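Notes from the 1:1 (GR / supervisor)

We went over the backlog. Supervisor wanted to see one worked example end to end before approving the batch request, so GR pasted a single chain during the call. The sequence is below; no edits were made to it. Supervisor asked that the structure be written out right there so they could see what the output format looks like.
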Amino acid sequence: MEFAIIALGPMLLMMLAGGVVLVAQVSGFMQNSAFSKREQFSQNLIKQYVMEIALAQTQVFQRSQDLEVLTSRLALSNQELGRLNDMKSKFLSMVVHDVRTPLASIRGFSELLMKKSVGEKEAQYLKNIVGSTDQLGHLIADLTDLAMIEAGKLKMEKALFDF
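Structure output shown during the call:
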């Protein structure tokens, strides 16, 4: 009997150890499978986030390029507007200067003619001419003020006034 225990003992131990190893391997496989699924899910999630970030970066880059194009077009438009504004200011200055002198002459000659004896109809015409030259004079003064404001040459001064 001792011989059977001695001969069967290691075999029993081997079978017991094999069973433990088998259980360990099955358990490890099951754990490895669950771990592998979690790891796969995590990797897929990371891949999805990386793709979304790459797409967002591409969109940001494209919008940045679009903004640069728009900025350069805006700068060119601003330069052109500045050039046109300078031309307008020069034109206003020239028109005001070139119209003011003949207008003053027309007004002056009309007033001289009014002092002479003229008919009632002619006197009314001369009053209309003087009135019209006064209106044009006010318009020219406003244009002069506008040109001076745009050129930055208008000076402001404090003064008391009554309503």
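Supervisor's comment: The mean pLDDT is 82.
Batch request approved.
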